[in-house]
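Weekly puzzle thread! Below is a chain. First person to post its structure in token form gets bragging rights.
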Amino acid sequence: MNEEEKIMRVLVAEDEQDLAELVATGLRRAGFAVDTVYSGDAALAYLGLYDYDVVVLDRDLPRVHGDDVARHLVAGSSRTRILMLTASASLDDRVEGLDLGADDYLGKPFDFPELVSRVRALRRRSARPVPPLLEKSGVRLDTVRRTATRDGRDLDLSPKEFSVLQILLEADGGTVSAEELLERAWDAHTDPFTGAVRVCMSKLRGKLGEPALIRTVQGVGYAL
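Winning reply:
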């Protein structure tokens, strides 16, 4: 699967749990699949299990310091980009963080739109850009403005429905399994047995309307 065909996956590693969940919620609304951890050892565990595009990394993590998490990623030649967060925004601190291998640096407190913009910019640096427009059978999906229409009618999709439709369109007629959709559009805490993909697919089909566009390939997955 090409990098440009992936929904962006982000790990938020922040020991202030309320802030971590606030950041994660906002990033999910922006269309990303997001996991959260609250310590450096948990960050290393998740980074070893999953392929993240970006880690939003608090520098002062407990148990394993954020600096050591960054060093581990750099030493392993990881493709995951690092956006480092810190309560100190001094020039010396910023330079030190970048010298550790961080790709970008943001001091607290920060404006959330700036965080989203920086995360997106880091993804663009690590992968070929997602096509700005995807079109098929009257469906037009704008990946920049995150809008979707069918024959000019606004589909009013949720962020998850938008992500699923994007993956199906990028497959260009190929079949996408439920497991692949879970991996690319949901976070790591989603129970694969909850029927999350089936429920989302049902809602997406309803919004797309008739004639039906999404086919269920029995025992394989879904195709558009």
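Puzzle host: Confirmed. Bonus trivia for everyone else. Residues 1-5 have pLDDT under 50 and may be disordered.
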